[in-house]
Design goal:
Chain A is mostly beta strands.
Chain lengths: 120, 120
């Protein structure tokens, strides 16, 4: 029998920013929790859409043609191939949904590129 | 540019139970909001896992080998082919994540089978 996932318990297990942790898998998709603070790098994901669900706090996603502001209880789908830059003035707790193997910086590897497929 | 999804606004648009409404798509997967109250039917999904994320309230998932109790801020993945029966004593607001085309009662069609692919 699978275990349930409690977001608060999982968030208590890490404190680093911009480093998504896998908490569940559905088929070949992963649910990842992450903390955002500050500005991330512009990037895109050539092969997949990406879902952001805000669990606690506020964040924004800059797009080349606009900006989306998200609060807890809101979600946004960045279509594949669309450049975006997540940012959060204050710490924000977020769940990402994306295919297994998706790298946080897409094809734009940098010092912000986090280790992939880290489970907590 | 995509629109963001606000769960509270979306839930305000319907009041029926056990009738999932699509609010977003990621690749060929859908995010659906639904209200649970009472007991659903035993069923399974032969071809896909199914994700339950509790937005507000409490619900349970009965499995043939146990039972999972879920509160707001918790999620559970029912593996494909695993029989399950969702239930909620009081009204519970839930988000489902599953492939486009997934029917709420799986292969067990009944009077509980909801119209598929209804967007709000």
């Amino acid at each position: 029998m699978n275990h349930k996932v409690n977001f608060e318990e999982k968030f208590a297990k890490f404190s680093d920013f911009w480093s998504p942790k896998v908490v569940a898998e559905m088929n070949d998709y992963q649910f990842k929790l992450t903390r955002f603070k500050g500005e991330f790098a512009w990037h895109d994901h050539k092969d997949t859409d990406e879902v952001f669900i805000v669990i606690e706090g506020n964040m924004s996603i800059e797009l080349r043609d606009g900006r989306v502001d998200l609060a807890a209880g809101e979600m946004y789908v960045v279509p594949k191939g669309v450049e975006h830059k997540p940012l959060a003035e204050q710490e924000c707790k977020v769940m990402l949904v994306e295919p297994r193997g998706t790298v946080n910086t897409g094809d734009q590897e940098s010092e912000l590129t986090a280790e992939n497929d880290v489970w907590i």
